[in-house]
Amino acid sequence: MAKKGVLLVNLGTPDSPETKDVRKYLDQFLMDERVIDIPKFNRTLLVKGIIVPFRSPKTSKLYKEIWGENGSPLFHYSKIQAKLLQEKLGDEYHVELAMRYQNPSIESALLKLKAGLVDSIKVIPLFPQYASASSGSVLQLVMELVSKWQTIPPISFVSSFHDNEQMIEIFAENSAKYQPETFDHILFSFHGLPERQLAKCDHTGNYCLKQKDCCHTYNDTNKFCYSAQGHHTASLIAAKMGIAKENYTVCFQSRLGKEPWVQPYTTDVLKKLAAEGKKRLLVFSPAFVADCLETLYEITVEYHEEFKELGGEHVQLVESLNDHPKFVEALAEMAVS
């Protein structure tokens, strides 16, 4: 009996924390025209001439800090998510996992679905909020690869699930163990993007970044905006937890380069809160469905240490969706819808 194919795609991870593998990962990642969206010649000089040679050894050390007996946490949890989804959906479905960068590749996963003679494919990029540099890159590559097939089955895509009710419930549940009411402030720290990439997603050409706080209200005009979707996710989690708007801040981490990225920057918010006398911060990172370098090291280690140096006491990360059964249910609903 023909099966329905499901392709889960996460960002990716080096094959090992060694410098040579980190170099390969960063090279493929940063050479993506949707990630660093500048002319190819300039991108090549920047990535291959500056970023990768100098950043790879440093990033290798960071990966070694989070690498466990199961390897990369992001890959480990992604494999579990795919395995549990296959069990949840049963024999009528064929689930494959791929990484946008490095292994297993999207091409290899698609070929497995093709060999399995699936009669349709549902592609689910594992990024709750849509961004051209993440979900958009996945969807583009899938379409490019499948366009070369002689027989193309029906293909559908999930572009975002930033307001998924089960995802919101999981983050709220995960935070309960830390007693949120005992913290001075709540942060929703999303991965950053250059402001120019937000502007490119403004189909009207006259809304994005044209007025103050344009992303704070989610509406039909900005419904494809990464920042607006992030603010919406944060507001839904806060509402589920009963957190008043003045008690939480949406911010953005992992800035690269000197040009303006989406603001406020998480590091600036840490300084502001420390200056106000805040001592304990609870931090969500709802741009990720699996804990990874950006959560396990950047937030848990770097931001914690930075905040203490500023006079704070503790930064506590709320873990991601990881292997939570409700997230598997959410994925199953996306797969069959």
Automatic annotation (TrEMBL):
Positions of Fe(2+) binding: 191, 294
Pfam short name (any one): Ferrochelatase
Recorded catalytic activity of this chain's protein: Fe-coproporphyrin III + 2 H(+) = coproporphyrin III + Fe(2+); heme b + 2 H(+) = protoporphyrin IX + Fe(2+)
Record-linked Gene3D superfamilies: 3.40.50.1400
EC code(s) of this entry: 4.98.1.1
One GO CC term on file: cytoplasm
Class of the enzyme per the UniProt entry, highest EC level: lyase
Assigned keywords, A-Z: Cytoplasm, Heme biosynthesis, Iron, Lyase, Metal-binding, Porphyrin biosynthesis
Biochemical pathway: Porphyrin-containing compound metabolism; protoheme biosynthesis; protoheme from protoporphyrin-IX: step 1/1
Subcellular location: Cytoplasm
Predominant location category: cytoplasm
Single GO MF descriptor: metal ion binding
GO biological process, one term: heme biosynthetic process
CDD domains (UniProt xref): Ferrochelatase_C, Ferrochelatase_N
SUPFAM superfamilies attached to this UniProt entry: Chelatase (SSF53800)
NCBIfam families reported for this sequence: hemH
Job description of the protein: Catalyzes the ferrous insertion into protoporphyrin IX.
Family: Belongs to the ferrochelatase family.
Name listed for the protein in its UniProt record: Ferrochelatase
Source species of the chain: Pedobacter cryotolerans
Source taxonomy: Bacteria, Pseudomonadati, Bacteroidota, Sphingobacteriia, Sphingobacteriales
